[in-house]
Specification:
The radius of gyration is 24 Å and the shape is globular. With about 600 residues, it is mainly alpha-helical. It has 24 helices and two strands. The protein has a two-stranded antiparallel sheet.
Length: about 600
């Protein structure tokens, strides 16, 4: 790395000095040059516009993420996982609170029995995103998941905004599942969920049902996640098998009590109800991205990750559709219980004993979801901290366990605090926004990856690429806005926006040559598949309520303030000191070319 070595060694000696990762000096959190004195910090703030431009236009390299950034954790994560582990991690990560809690809520409030179509729409969107994730995870197998992919393709700033939303997604997802855990535990004990919660009348109703059980579950999960990834995998494997057996029981026993009259009013609120439910039910598919963060611990990423991600998503989508059909055939949609729909459904058809099996299975499912998301979120935070956008203390990997202990504890503490206060419906809507936003960015990144390589793509083709991507984004946003704001019977707007999306994608296919071929595993039908992913994710965003967007805007504002005051300067100093991308400048400072990345990566 040359002259930058001395400086980065000085900056990171705090990280290397700690054997246990327990000390908490200032250098563990802000070791960079900009924070060594108040004068340095003021100087850094004055340079904010210049530094911001640098971070906005500078993209990381595959090799930087795979080798240099990873090395900043001092100890390597252990490569212990196979495709079999990843499929079960995928099933464990995804099948949980979404299906067991939100199915009832959305069937009753929005979609009726057509909730099965909502799951199909969400499932198609999730599967398109899975394909985009898989190509990245195979070629850049690091713990940073989509954060690392976006850093390579869209630059530091977009990666940070995405990272903040990824962390929000994990914290909120964990909090939502923890609260749902309490609901099913209460059913198992023949109580109402609020019997186990403390009602604080001085707080607003949405935040006043305090949930100590959710906090306790978080503590137990934290201990499991810290101890070992392979140990977590074994626990998840056993729990997921039990979970799958319970799901099969629900489908077979439930269909034995089916009444087709309950399907008489199939879609009470029409297409609008189906898509509104679909946007919220996307929550039920969240979690598969946690599998991509385990790429660093996978023995053979090129084979294991595609099988693990695509296989687990296919199994999950099929299970969801069958469960949704079963629930709505057992009870009229207006009588579905919103807290524990499947348990109460069995009770209402006279099989009171079955509700205990269902509740126990749901608890198993939610426990595995919490465990896999705990493992995944800690690895995201670890990789973000490696770039110093977050304090490097969080990047420490424990020598004994080979797990990121500090990051795991911090993320689960945040999850426990939110789970203690906040109701599930607020959490699920906000979660869907941040997730759909990230998946849209990953699809854009894939288009950039395939069609733009510095030194290979001509300036004319680069302009064409930008125009096509902007047209795809604008037409997708317009489609979502028409859906979210206009009369649902109106189709005139779509006659304009959908052809624009189609011809923009076609123009990209015909007029811009691909600058890079995937080395190991590639998404099929590029650019159609990632472009469709952008359109569907945007369209689902148009179905989410305005309040959730306001909360999303507040969170993004907080992220921007943190980035401009701390994250920008810390990551700028670290990149300059380590000599990241020091060979080139400005907009061309972008990524390995095809030849060098083939030689260096993996």
């Amino acid at each position: 790395m040359g002259g930058g070595d001395i400086h980065i060694d000085h900056q990171e000696e705090g990280l290397r000095r700690r054997g246990c990762g327990c000390s908490c000096s200032k250098n563990d959190f802000l070791p960079e040059e900009s924070f060594q004195s108040f004068g340095n910090y003021l100087q850094a703030l004055k340079e904010t516009p210049m530094r911001f431009k640098d971070r906005l236009l500078t993209r990381s390299k595959d090799t930087t993420e795979i080798h240099e950034i990873k090395a900043r954790s001092e100890h390597e994560m252990k490569k212990t996982l196979t495709w079999w582990d990843l499929i079960w991690f995928g099933i464990g990560a995804v099948i949980g609170a979404g299906i067991f809690v939100l199915t009832g809520l959305e069937a009753r409030e929005h979609a009726g029995p057509a909730v099965v179509l909502s799951y199909v729409v969400s499932g198609v969107s999730a599967m398109l995103s899975v394909f985009c994730y898989t190509e990245f995870a195979v070629e850049i197998p690091v713990a940073g998941g989509s954060f690392a992919y976006l850093r390579v393709e869209l630059g530091d700033f977009m990666a940070f905004i995405a990272a903040g939303n990824i962390l929000l997604e994990y914290v909120i997802g964990g909090a939502a599942v923890s609260r749902a855990w309490t609901s099913y535990f209460a059913t198992l004990c023949n109580h109402k969920p609020d019997d186990f919660r403390i009602i604080a009348h001085s707080l607003p109703d949405d935040y006043g049902h305090l949930d100590p059980i959710a906090v306790l579950v978080g503590v137990v999960i934290c201990i499991l996640a810290v101890l070992s990834t392979k140990g977590s995998s074994r626990f998840n494997y056993v729990a997921s098998i039990i979970h799958v057996v319970v799901i099969l029981f629900i489908i077979v026993a439930g269909l034995a009590k089916a009444d087709t009259k309950n399907y008489a009013d199939f879609a009470p609120n029409g297409a609008h109800g189906i898509f509104t439910a679909s946007a919220v039910l996307f929550f039920a598919y969240v979690g598969f991205d946690a599998v991509s963060t385990m790429a660093e611990e996978t023995k053979n990423p090129a084979r294991d990750i595609p099988i693990g991600l695509v296989g687990s998503m296919a199994i999950t989508t099929l299970a969801y559709c069958l469960l949704a059909v079963t629930l709505c055939l057992m009870v009229p949609y207006k009588m579905i219980d919103v807290d524990a729909p499947f348990s109460v459904a069995f009770e209402s058809v006279g099989w009171g004993w079955a509700k205990y099996i269902v509740a126990a299975g749901a608890l198993k499912g939610m426990t595995t979801v919490l465990l896999v998301s705990a493992v995944g979120q800690a690895r995201y935070l670890t990789h973000i901290a490696r770039t110093h956008m977050m304090p490097p203390w969080l990047a420490h990997v424990n020598a004994k366990t080979g797990t990121p202990v500090n990051a795991t504890v911090v993320m689960l503490a945040a999850t426990a605090i939110i789970a203690f206060f906040t109701k599930l419906d607020i959490l699920s809507n906000l979660l869907s926004i941040s997730t759909l936003f990230i998946f849209m960015l990953v699809a854009v990144s894939l288009l950039v990856r395939r069609y733009y390589v510095s030194g290979v793509t001509t300036p004319v083709n680069r302009v064409k690429l930008i125009v096509c991507i902007v047209a795809i984004l604008v037409s997708s946003i317009a489609t979502a806005l028409i859906w979210g704001t206009s009369d649902q019977a109106s189709w005139i707007g779509y006659v304009i926006t959908i052809p624009i999306w189609f011809f923009a994608t076609l123009a990209l296919k015909i007029s811009v040559p691909q600058a890079r071929d995937p080395k190991l595993w590639g998404v099929p039908l590029v650019p159609w598949l990632p472009s469709a992913s952008i359109l569907i994710n945007m369209f689902l965003l148009g179905s989410i309520d305005v309040q959730s967007f306001k909360r999303f805007a507040v969170w993004t504002g907080i992220l921007l303030i943190y980035y401009l005051l701390f994250g920008l300067h810390a990551s700028y100093d670290t990149a300059k000191a380590s000599g990241e991308n020091k060979d080139e400048g400005g907009f061309k400072n972008v990524e390995d070319g095809t030849v060098s990345s083939q030689n260096d990566a993996l």
